[in-house]
C-alpha cells in the first residue's frame, strides 16, 4: 500500500480538514501538504469546514485568519462538523467524484463522527482509499469522547500516517484490524519566509538586541507547561541577568494566573507577554529575535513549533515527552 505511492503521479487527492479561512498550525500543515502534492504532479483539493467548532467550544478570540487565501491550491468550504445530513451529502458527493485518495486530518475525537460517516460512504465506490493523517489520536486533554468516538473513525480508514511513534502506538491501541500504519516525522515548515537578522527582528518588535531571549511560542494551554517554565526561570534569573522570556501566543488559559505567577516569581521585568495570535508574516520576527526556543511541555505528540525552529536554525530546549525526543536529540 505504501511502497510506491511517491512514484505515482496524476492521482486525484482530496484532503479533509482545517484550512483557510481558518487559522492555526494545522491549517498551515494541510495547505503546505496540498502544495507539495501539487508539486509532485497530483490533482489536489482541500475540503474544509463551513463550521469547524461551535463558538461555545472554541476558547480563543477567533477561528478565522486575517490573511489572504493561500495561492496555488484549491480550497472548498463544504463540511459542517455538527450536521449529519451534511456528512451524508459530502460523502455521496465524494463517492461520485471517486478520488484516488481521501486524506482526513485528525486531531481530536470531536471530528470522528463527521469524518467517519463521510469516509464510510465514499469507500463504497470501490475505488477511493481513505487515509488518516493523525496529529493526535488521544489528545493532550483527553475526554470520554476519545474512547466512545475514536474507534469508529479508526474503523473507516484503510491506513494511517502519524507524525510520531507515540501516535502510532495510540492508533494501534484502537485498531482491531491491524491496518497499515506509517510513522513519517513532522516535516520542517519552510513557508514562513527567510531567516531574519536578530537586530532587525528586535527592532521590528521593539526589543533590545543586546539581550538574550527565550521564546515560548504558540497557543498557551495547560499541557504546554508555561507554569513550569516560569518557576524554572525564577531559579536562574539572578545568574542570567541578560536573559528574558518572550511568551508569544493567544492564551487558551486564564492569563491572569500566569501574570500572578510572573509577579510572584519576581519576573515582571524579565517576561514579555504578547497575548495574541501571531500572523504568519510576523512569525519570522519572533524566531529571528529568539536565541532559544523553549517547549516545557507536560505531554506531547509532536510539535510544529519545533519544525519552525529548525527552519530558522534555532536551538530548542524541550522536555523529553511524547514525540519531542524523537526530533530533538540531546546535545545536538
Word description of this protein:
By secondary structure, the protein is an alpha/beta fold. It contains eleven helices and twelve strands. It has helices at 25-39, 84-97, 112-122, 144-155, 165-174, 198-205, 226-236, 255-264, 280-289, 304-311, 324-327; strands spanning 12-16, 43-51, 74-80, 101-106, 129-134, 159-162, 181-183, 212-217, 243-248, 271-274, 292-295, 316-318. The strands form two sheets. Strands 3-2-1-4-5-6-7 form a seven-stranded parallel sheet, sandwiched between helices. The chain is globular, with a radius of gyration of 21 Å. The two termini are 35 Å apart.
Instruction: Characterize the main sheet.
Output: 7 strands, parallel
> What strand order characterises the main sheet?
3-2-1-4-5-6-7
Helix and strand run? EHEEHEHEHEHEHEHEHEHEHEH
Count of DSSP strands: 12
How would you briefly describe this protein structure?
The chain is an alpha/beta fold and 332 residues long.
Keywords:
single chain, 332 residues, alpha/beta, 7-stranded parallel sheet, 5-stranded parallel sheet, 11 helices, 12 strands, 34% helix, globular
What's the layout of helices and strands?
Blueprint: E1 12-16, H1 25-39, E2 43-51, E3 74-80, H2 84-97, E4 101-106, H3 112-122, E5 129-134, H4 144-155, E6 159-162, H5 165-174, E7 181-183, H6 198-205, E8 212-217, H7 226-236, E9 243-248, H8 255-264, E10 271-274, H9 280-289, E11 292-295, H10 304-311, E12 316-318, H11 324-327
Parallel strand pairs: 1-2, 1-4, 2-3, 4-5, 5-6, 6-7, 8-9, 8-11, 9-10, 11-12
Helix pairs in contact: 2-3, 3-4, 6-9
Amino acid at each position: 500500500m505504501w511502497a510506491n505511492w511517491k512514484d505515482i503521479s496524476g492521482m486525484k487527492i482530496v484532503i479533509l480538514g482545517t484550512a483557510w479561512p481558518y487559522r492555526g498550525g494545522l491549517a498551515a500543515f494541510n495547505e503546505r501538504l496540498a502544495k507539495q502534492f501539487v508539486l509532485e504532479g497530483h490533482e489536489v483539493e482541500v475540503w474544509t469546514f463551513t463550521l469547524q467548532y461551535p463558538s461555545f467550544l472554541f476558547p480563543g478570540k477567533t477561528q478565522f485568519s486575517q490573511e489572504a487565501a493561500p495561492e496555488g491550491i484549491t480550497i472548498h468550504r463544504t463540511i459542517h462538523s455538527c450536521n449529519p445530513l451534511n456528512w451524508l451529502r459530502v460523502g455521496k458527493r465524494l463517492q461520485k467524484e471517486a478520488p484516488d485518495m481521501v486524506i482526513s486530518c485528525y486531531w481530536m475525537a470531536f471530528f470522528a463522527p463527521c469524518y467517519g460517516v463521510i469516509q464510510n460512504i465514499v469507500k463504497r465506490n470501490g475505488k477511493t482509499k481513505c487515509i488518516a493523517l493523525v496529529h493526535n489520536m488521544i489528545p493532550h486533554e483527553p475526554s470520554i469522547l476519545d474512547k466512545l468516538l475514536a474507534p469508529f473513525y479508526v474503523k473507516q480508514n484503510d491506513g494511517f500516517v502519524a507524525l510520531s511513534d507515540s501516535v502510532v502506538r495510540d492508533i494501534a491501541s484502537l485498531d482491531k484490524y491491524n491496518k497499515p500504519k506509517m510513522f513519517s516525522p513532522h516535516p520542517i515548515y519552510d513557508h514562513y519566509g527567510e531567516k531574519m537578522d536578530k537586530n532587525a527582528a528586535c527592532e521590528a518588535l521593539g526589543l533590545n538586541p543586546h539581550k538574550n531571549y527565550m521564546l515560548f511560542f504558540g497557543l498557551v494551554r495547560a499541557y504546554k507547561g508555561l507554569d513550569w517554565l516560569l518557576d524554572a526561570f525564577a531559579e536562574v534569573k539572578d545568574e542570567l541577568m541578560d536573559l528574558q522570556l518572550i511568551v508569544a501566543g493567544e492564551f487558551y488559559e486564564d492569563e491572569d494566573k500566569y501574570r500572578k505567577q510572573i509577579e510572584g516569581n519576581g519576573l515582571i521585568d524579565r517576561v514579555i507577554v504578547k497575548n495574541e495570535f501571531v500572523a504568519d508574516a510576523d512569525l519570522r520576527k519572533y524566531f529571528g529575535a529568539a536565541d532559544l526556543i523553549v517547549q516545557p511541555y507536560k505531554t506531547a505528540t509532536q510539535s510544529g513549533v519545533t519544525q519552525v525552529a529548525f527552519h530558522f536554525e534555532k536551538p530548542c530546549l524541550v522536555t523529553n515527552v511524547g514525540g519531542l525526543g524523537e526530533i530533538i536529540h540531546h546535545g545536538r
